[in-house]
Automatic annotation (TrEMBL):
GO biological process: positive regulation of transcription by RNA polymerase II
GO MF annotation: an example: histone H3 acetyltransferase activity
Ranges where the record places region Disordered: 298-327
Record protein name field: KAT2A acetyltransferase
Membrane-spanning intervals of the chain: none
Boundaries of every Bromo domain copy: 604-674
Pfam families: Bromodomain (PF00439), PCAF_N (PF06466)
PROSITE patterns (alphabetical): BROMODOMAIN_1 (PS00633), BROMODOMAIN_2 (PS50014)
GO terms under cellular component: ATAC complex; nucleus
Amino acid sequence: QANDACKCNGWKNPNPPTAPRMDLQQPVANLSEPCRSCGHALADHVSHLENVSEEEINRLLGMVVDVENLFMSVHKEEDTDTKQVYFYLFKLLRKCILQMSQPVVEGSLGSPPFEKPNIEQGVLNFVQYKFSHLPPKERQTMYELSKMFLLCLNYWKLETPSQFRQRSQNDDVATYKVNYTRWLCYCHVPQSCDSLPRYETTHVFGRSLLKSIFTVTRRQLLEKFRVEKDKLVPEKRTLILTHFPKFLSMLEEEIYGENSPIWEADFTVPATEGGQLVSRPAAVSTVAVPTAPLFSKKLNNSSSSANMDSSTPEPLPGNAGEKRKLPESLTLEDAKRIRVMGDIPMELVNEVMLTITDPAAMLGPETSLLSANAARDETARLEERRGIIEFHVIGNSLSQKSNKKILMWLVGLQNVFSHQLPRMPKEYITRLVFDPKHKTLALIKDGRVIGGICFRMFPTQGFTEIVFCAVTSNEQVKVKQGERLVGFSKDIKVPKSRYLGYIKDYEGATLMECELNPRIPYTELSHIIKKQKEIIKKLIERKQAQIRKVYPGLTCFKEGVRQIPIESVPGIRESCSVPAQKGKELKDPDQLYNTLKNLLAQIKTHPSAWPFMEPVKKSEAPDYYEIIRFPIDLKTMTERLKNRYYVTKKLFIADLQRIITNCREYNPPDSDYCKCANTLEKFFYFKLKEGGLIDK
């Protein structure tokens, strides 16, 4: 300014001149002209802004608008406590304009988040805790209600401390006043003042605030919906007026209950289904890599994008994702020795492998990498072995100073994902790539990033979500349409309660899953398959040598014989099995017992057998035994087998089929349980045919 004594407010004029007519063309102001308020040259008022960027000027102008709005709010507000907060924020922004600084709320309020777990996490825990046993459709309804409640809470106007004081005890008022002030500064006012950092109410507050406001908020919410019910579509009207009140009543018990587990920091829902997920990097995604199963959302884009979740790798607690235990009657050695009927003895396999003198025959010719029949992963494997490409799992860190090379790679990954996934906002990609909770498997060539998989692991839930998966255009292998998501399936085996509320939900995306077996070395898969093909080729050659054996001809017809049994033809028994015995009842009780025991063991170790391992608990499905008149499960079948109940194969097959029938009768057709039943039914009928217990 011209001198320190100048008190001109710049944009505020206590004696504004007569407003000019808007339809007349106004001359452009010159910085040498005098200020209409104080008479000093206009240039003196903006001299400190000469070297300030346009972006910063726009930020300061935005703060000016917010100051004006706060000034109006201070004069309109009648509540004393609220007025004081408005006035404090008004002075804070005005100070920041003069100092060209960022607004920071100072004092004893602290900084967000104020409680853990927050309201959102508590409500999602409540949904899992109370409704995880429901069929998928009903469970999804409860989840939708929880999202609606959280959304309302984020935009709900809280009662003032004076209103709270009228209905509460004095010792609660001080705590509520602090939370109310925090809510104004960090949640409510920033909704209209962009200059202030904004937080969602359900993200920064927890049980303490919810206990203070729930009773009043619940009453106001239900009243609002009743008044506006005619404006709601019929489906929403039924959902809100019928299910929402009951949902809030059950939530109220958990909010005010002393021993509610949903507010515990390490809350987990016991996984009654068993751990059928694979390992962490096999994921959920918009391409997924879980350590157990992988989920994936298939986007309508030329590149695969995925969601995975990963924090520091840690053991999966509880039975969410832990290795399935073998039945008590089946030891680990027994499991290893379980053999499917028709399996080739290991002794024969080892003998055949000794006859393969050329190791290259197993691995395939690595020199013909451009061959149309070359395995797709051979080029990459050879380049990695030669040091041309490298794989690194990297991520940002808040606790340790990041390596410069790591940061450069993260920036490179952000560029690759942004270019290959144009539908994804760049800000969103940047936030997730640099988020410490996310890790990225980076593909490096000649020191620069050419691709990667960004993922996040959920150890407590037993899966990993792939967020992004992309490779630069010039490095992509040209494959046929539909081959991009090899290994992923739309048939989701993981219970929805385990991933609902955890993975990112994209509109127009298709959720897919990929389950990895920890015993399979996937990076050597093409080698393994080639080795198996070579072994099978040698076995076929051996079998053909036996078949080509010349047996003496039949002379009995010359002697007047009109008909002989087919198995009496020389060489028939040696070359094939006689099908006449298929489907016949096994008369030897011990032979029947051993056959059924072997079959039942294979069924119990099938990945889709987990819902049927034990009898249904009445606490989990109160009406189950009213609907299902003849319950049966694999544990009961095991006991019946031990007691020699199955004197015929028909009894055994009837119990197996009863398991499937009961499941379909009680559960919706699209439920996870029915999906498992369908898969298991196909498996055991295949085994029954393979074992000759039923006709093919």
